[in-house]
């Protein structure tokens, strides 16, 4: 199985997404959205941003 996003409705009737790795482990999740369509737009935004994102390491204070 390959990595994929799941869009689902939670118990509070909010739409959320999570990114699942190929082994089924959740590796990221999104906030609650009022509609499925807006949650899907959230997934699309994450996909665009992640494609160009750098890795920044924040050292402990």
From TrEMBL:
<protein>
    <submittedName>
        <fullName>YegP family protein</fullName>
    </submittedName>
</protein>
<dbReference type="InterPro" id="IPR051141">
    <property type="entry name" value="UPF0339_domain"/>
</dbReference>
<dbReference type="InterPro" id="IPR010879">
    <property type="entry name" value="DUF1508"/>
</dbReference>
<dbReference type="Pfam" id="PF07411">
    <property type="entry name" value="DUF1508"/>
</dbReference>
<feature type="domain" description="DUF1508">
    <location>
        <begin position="10"/>
        <end position="56"/>
    </location>
</feature>
<dbReference type="InterPro" id="IPR036913">
    <property type="entry name" value="YegP-like_sf"/>
</dbReference>
């Amino acid at each position: 199985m390959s990595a994929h996003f799941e869009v689902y409705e939670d118990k509070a009737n909010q739409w959320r997404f999570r990114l699942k790795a190929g082994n089924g482990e959740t590796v990221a999740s999104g906030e609650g959205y009022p509609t499925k369509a807006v949650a899907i737009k959230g997934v699309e935004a994450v996909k665009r941003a992640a494609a160009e994102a750098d890795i920044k390491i924040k050292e402990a204070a």
